[in-house]
User: Fold these one by one.
Assistant:
Number 1:
Amino acid sequence: MTTLLTNARLIDPEGLTEIPGSLLIENGVIAGVGDVTAPKGATVIDCGGKCLAPGIVDLGVKIGEPGERHKESFRSAGLAAAAGGVTTIIARPDTNPAIDNPETLEFVTRRAAEACPVRIRHMAALTKGREGREMTEIGFLLDAGAIAFTDCDHVVTDTKVLSRALTYAKSLNALVMGHPQEPILSAGAATTSGKFASLRGLPGVSPMAERIGFDREMGMVEMTGAKYHFDQITTARALPPLERAKANGFDVTAGTSIHHLTLNEFDVGDYRTFFKVKPPLRPEDDRIAVVEAVASGLIDIISSMHTPQDEESKRLPFEDAASGAVALETFLPAAMRLYHAGQLTLPQLFRAMALNPAQRLGLPQGRLATGAPADLVLFDPDAPFVLDRFKLNSKSKNTPFDGQRMEGKVLGTWVDGKRVFPGEA
Amino acid sequence: MTFRARHLLGIEHLAPEEIRAVLDLAETYVELNQRTVKHSDALEGMTQINMFFENSTRTQASFELAGKRLGADVMNMSVAHSSVKKGETLIDTALTLNAMHPDLLVVRHPASGAVDLLAQKVNCAVLNAGDGRHEHPTQALLDALTIRRAKGRIQRLTVAICGDIAHSRVARSNLILLGKMENRIRLIGPPTLMPSGVQDLGCEVYEDMREGLKDCDVVMMLRLQKERMDGGFIPSEREYYHRYGLDAEKLAMAKDDAIVMHPGPMNRGVEIDGELADDINRSVIQDQVEMGVAVRMACMDLLARNLRAERGARAVGVMV
């Protein structure tokens, strides 16, 4: 099966370039990029000058299987991913029960293979039940295909447990992902403390809680030499220590979420619970600082932090409502806001959304180069639309972008050289 | 008619003319309430439900009396003890009540924003009787009426709000109302009970009470809730009284004719000296209670007028 995509604007996150050209797919692999012509018998697709980039590798997607399939299944998440240009889902283990043993991991791996049209890899919990008391069977879980280890938004507060888990993970060269947050200081918080939280009468947490969490975990990394990724850095105050950690040569990377890059605390307005995420949305100064850190490469990875919640979990007073937002399908158009604002170029965006996460996880994806897997997204960065949450593929419709004007439409998604979006009519 | 609101959810949504409209109408009800026959038919035939998700004796009594004096059929529901315990959500409780066609729904809830959420789901007028740490609009309005009657005006005054600002919806609503009416506002309290970023809201913040009270026209004390007293927020009750309790000596820093207010219920000897609270020359605390009924009558009367106008307009097919 040979396909030639011609007349495309090629977004190369490695060379940080965007040039017009063609791309040849042969047997699921990119066989040529740039000035290539169609071999005999190839299917030729004219991209109409639109952007062709490596498919998004989304680190930290919550899927409701097992336990909350009414919120999201592998099928619905996969369809949402395909429609959003996400070609590899890295799923979170904060399910019910948690993915903390090889049997559960095998179950989700099998379910995903049956139902999900895009690639999917699973992370496993770092401690049993994500309770922070005993480490999981890291070795067995690696053998069963775990790609990284994380307790998600649960912070392992017992430093003895954490140091042992990190030391053990390090010996197996496993990547550990943590949530930088001081859990006692941030307990009960629904917003970032400050003028907005005070006016709304909502319990807030100082942005310092992220920095304190960061410093603590960084101390553990320094002690154990573990390979570590901070899931979401969302405040200006955590950036200088991140810069120092990287300059000192520790094996650390950092991510942030698309919501923290494109929304701020004031978007909550009159207690709109679809804007309740974890950590809470930040003041505008923090948002700008984090956007700049993505541009400079200090923050490596942008994730959707896709977190499906049903209507009942959100139709509650703000403090009581569940956190999280669905984002697989809105990830790319939200990212286009940063592009249209002139804050990030398309290659910079795809470096953070595809290349860096793939490389951090040791995956061959994320590159627009000969020999790389043909996982691709074709999109029009300028196409405008008004988002209707009920048209999303996700089972849960909790998006903060409902009713908003957005730009950026996915025109086609390929996984392993096969077109997965749009599906056959 | 200058009062256009459909609901009374907070002072934040009111324009200064609307605040004045409430106070002016309330004056007429103050007068009515002093007669032997305290009856009006402003809410004749209407149904008022008081839904209190949090215990309250004073506010609930005040709303109940206000409704009854206006001729409404008033029902009290203490939701804290009923269906919420059975797992029914706030929305379901609201929808159930809505199906009984109330005209006025008075709601108190422990979560900030809960009353806003409820107002979106019902088609009657909703009055916020206090939501979490967010707003308590009728308290701010009754405070404004008390001040206006004592001082002859409700602008260009220096008002000190003292105590647990962080957890107080009374402080927030007053801060907004007094700001809208162009007063100088000082917040006095220990830093642990001061909300963050509050200095950006157009008020002066003081940790030293004597300094903060200097030349004030009005001193508003707040209730220190039992659960904040020990441990977390302040070292002890007695240290708090020493530094932030209002007594004659501290009050001497304020203007000679400064009035003392408290939303009640008071902790005598914690935030306020008992004798001072009873001093009829300085304390207007009992007046506040009296104004409370009048202001609540005015608010419900105005909301009922808007509700009637809206329903009348709908009946004849006019866009509202």
Number 2:
Amino acid sequence: MLLRPRTDDHLVIGKYTGKVIIGVGLLMVVPLITAIVFAEWDTVLDFVISIAACLVFGFGTQLICRTDRDLSWSHGLIVASGSWIIATALGAMPHWLSGHEGSYLDAMFDVMSGFTTTGLYMMQDLDHIAHGLNMWRHLLTYTGGQGIVVVALTFLFKGTAGAYKTYVGEGKDERLLPNVVQTARAIWLVSLTWLVVGTTALFITGWALGQEPVRAFLHGLWVFMGAWSTGGFAPQSYNTMWYHALSYEIVAIVIMIAGSFNFAMHWAVWTGKRKEILRNVETVSFAITLTITVLIATFALAKAGVYPDAMSLFRKAFYQLASGHTTTGFSTVYARAFVTQWGPIGLTATTIAMAIGASACSTGGGIKGIRMGVMFKAFVQDIRRAVSPEAAIVRAKIHHVRDIYLDDGLVRTTMTITIAYLSLYGLTAIVGTLYGYDFLQAAFEGVSAASNTGLSCGVTSPSMPDVMKVLLLCAMWLGRLEFMSVFALGGYGIAMLRGRR
Amino acid sequence: MNGRTTDGLTRREKWPRYATGLLVETGFVLGLTLVALGLALLAEAVF
């Protein structure tokens, strides 16, 4: 029986959503300062208007929704999914005001793509946008990678009992430390340390390649944010192909693969369990599936003679596959090259890598390594049971920070989420095909959006039908939040309309 | 972030372990990169 939500439910959801939106408004101060430093006065005005809108919404909601009640589990899920939509709608204001977007829907598409660390974009004339707006694009993806709620948890929630519930709603259900606010801070510690190291490495590389220092620093910072968050945004329309440098590509690969690791795995390695990286089910699964997909693409490209030597083949194949598998979306080939040069096998290998995706509780998307590990172990366990004597007890385990024995509940949950991802991949491919795109290309683009990757074979563009834009936008949202919190929001809406009092 | 606000996470004596962890992760990625280079050389030799 569905119960109609009470006023108290609306108040508590409104209060916490308001806090998250205040966080988004405060985040805009960084691009505002950037625009002031570079004397981009039109952009300054765009951000002043946008910050004002976020603060009016956030404080206004808090003023209206005054309650001492804390969040329940269902509230947490609804706040997580609802605040992502409102943050997208308000976060799109600077994009739209800049004049670089064809419509407000395009601006929302780009912001959802940033928050969900996807990397697909509709922005026009990207090479000539203001530094302030570029900072906003990359900050969206960096904070989206940690999770908007993690940002609010760290700075605004101050350890409330309900905070963990919104954290779970954002698809991050691991505690690195006993307290969820400590966990959020540990995630930030790892991310900020990598920010300093990664940006410095890219800055030095860019400078050595001939960029002037300020430009080298800004590009280093933005490419780091795009790589670490597995977001895939870059400051140039040619993405990372613009740098044409093996050294830059290697540094980017290190950052994007590190960014795709589970924060719990990071924390284990960083606190002395060094062998965890070789034992963890997600890193083992990632190493195996990445090697297989790189092998397929490399041999297909070598057979077709697309690249003249082994080094070119390595640079193109490994970069695209690592980018796809980590769900980053950086690219060093033209979008249409996936179709015209890579062919069906290369395109399929990349699609499979994107579909599998990164680690759970990371900045990445996709089905996730831990689910691949669970399904594989469950499959092996069933075979072993079938060939063992009836009285034998066959138990399978995975290693993720500690040993975890498989039970039916774990396997069922894993299968449910995996089937949800596969259904979403299928839906986007079918709708794309109905709109006249080739099936393989529609599947590539749909999987890219739903797994929050951002590689494109040329389907995503401002001229794409609005229905496709909305579908891919929703696919990014569903994929990033791993379905449950979005379904909870849908259920809340239905309960408001049809629930019993 | 200082020691007080991050519950001791940033205490000075912890940084050598953090740095080692970061290097271990970098080494793992570079290992995967070498495997991919090996595959490219193999593919060139085969075709």
